[in-house]
Amino acid sequence: MPLMVLPILGQVSVSESLVAIITICVVYLLMRLNRIKIPDGLQKLPGPKPFPIIGNVLELGNNPHLSLTEMTKTYGPVFQIQIGMRPVVVLSGNDVIRQALLKQGEEFAGRPDMHSSKFISDGKSLAFSTDQVGVWRARRKLALSALRTFSTVQGKSGEYACALEEHISNEGLYLIQRLHNVMKSDGSFDPFRHIVVSVANVICGICFGRRHSHDDDELVRLVNMSDEFGKIVGSGNPSDFIPFLRVLPSTTMKKFIDINKRFGKFMQKLVSEHYETFDKNNIRDITDSLINHCEDRKLDENSNLQVSDEKIVGIVNDLFGAGFDTISTALSWSVVYLVAYPEMQVRLQKELNEKIGTDRTPRLSDRTELPLLEAFILEIFRHSSFLPFTIPHCTSRDTSLNGYFIPKDTCVFVNQWQVNHDSELWKDPYSFNPDRFLSADGTELNKADAEMVLVFGLGKRRCIGESIGRAEVFLFLAILLQRLSFSGIPGETLDLTPEYGLTMKHKRCLLRVTPQPGFEPQTTLS
Ligand code: HEM
């Protein structure tokens, strides 16, 4: 006889459920016997009382960023919840998060051992795996240096300041043409569907020295499924915390494993092609530079060979994955906000028209000239907080915070959403108001406020693609806004409610574009 356990789990037999429940009870009792001793002078973490077996899962609900923000009002900025049988420390508030990630950075820099992480890059991801500190540090250094080199290197045409600017400009112009074409054939378009391919092409250019067509089925399907990925690795996914959920059928988990397999296959093909055509004297892109690093290391008798070739070349998976999902989510939100706040779109276009005009395409060096656009982007980051939590952290040794004891290997959630909506930091935090970042005369950005927006994490695990991310969102938006006006479908209301995940997406919707004066489409490209 089938038994429904939770809606997300699907159907399970009574015998399977009984085995699972008995196992959980035994583990639960063992855990109670193994209670942690609090060192003298420190206190036990506050937090809601957990239910047996499921902990506080029900209180987390479908929007953990909102429920955990609400809990700070009762328990303060450092508290503990229990997801399933696993204790999780939740950090909120600017001061506490800075204390943990900057001042006590070493102690909070680990990653927890999560079930879902085992499927990402076969458990060898730089961002998600539980690599030992030395291995993670070496990989992170390599990744940072490769990113820096291949985004700042001279572009192919010499027309642009760097390869990054060249890739973004080309893809921005392709995207505009593409949107005109889709408008002509369908009368509207799904913004995420098209933006994500353009953004993926920028990181593909840097990592693999190539771009894909917007009609490349495999790439389009893969990058358009990133929301399924984010739903599983977002903080608070029950199957990462409640072991028995792993053995039960779950369509979301099945999809997650499938996406990772397909992603791995897609990346492996590109990496294999690089190995076949590798030439030490012509390092074309990040993949070549990682292969070269492995080759050099083999010749160096003094080198430390702890990090396998697979883990080095596999860095490219993290760069590609993180590089398309985050930026396309930011851009897609930006476009939706432009439609929701049309008067802001007009002001941004006026700024572009006055500072850049119509004779040339915007460049990265125009950033200081376009303070309203910069303020708009900061407000998108803050208001949408589309990365509500960082990737979960983990304590690397016994530590304390705000007088509370936190044992080694405790999973830690960093609530970025709470900081970005804290009424102690922001006036009217729930209203969308880019002007909050501008000086009274609107000519300058307020740098102190800009730095308070928390979206790239902080400290040792801070995003390594931050400068690329900021540059890319800026330049894509500047190019799009110079040439297009975005609008909704008359009579249809836009729903700005985010869908929870590692990166929160807006609901899929249909929008329209019209060309800005002087930028009417002339030819139809495929
Ligand atoms: C708007 C764009 C982006 C946002 C908002 C963003 C945000 C983040 C956040 C919140 C984290 C986790 C920090 C933590 O765990 O404390 C992260 C990590 C990471 N990001 Fe980004 N990111 C963006 C773009 C990029 C890009 C373009 C790349 C690479 C090309 C990238 C590569 C990474 C990597 C590799 C990590 C893992 C770092 C580690 O675990 O040591 N990100 N990012």
From TrEMBL:
It is a peripheral membrane protein. Keywords: Endoplasmic reticulum, Heme, Iron, Membrane, Metal-binding, Microsome, Monooxygenase, Oxidoreductase. Cytochromes P450 are a group of heme-thiolate monooxygenases. They oxidize a variety of structurally unrelated compounds, including steroids, fatty acids, and xenobiotics. It holds the Pfam family p450. It comes from Danionella cerebrum. GO terms for biological process: hormone biosynthetic process; progesterone metabolic process. GO terms for molecular function: heme binding; iron ion binding; steroid 17-alpha-monooxygenase activity. It catalyses: an organic molecule + reduced [NADPH--hemoprotein reductase] + O2 = an alcohol + oxidized [NADPH--hemoprotein reductase] + H2O + H(+). It is found in: Endoplasmic reticulum membrane; Microsome membrane. Heme binds at residue 463. Transmembrane segments: none annotated. This is Cytochrome P450 1A. It is an enzyme of class 1 (oxidoreductase). Belongs to the cytochrome P450 family. The keyword Membrane applies. Its EC number is 1.14.14.1. GO terms for cellular component: endoplasmic reticulum membrane.
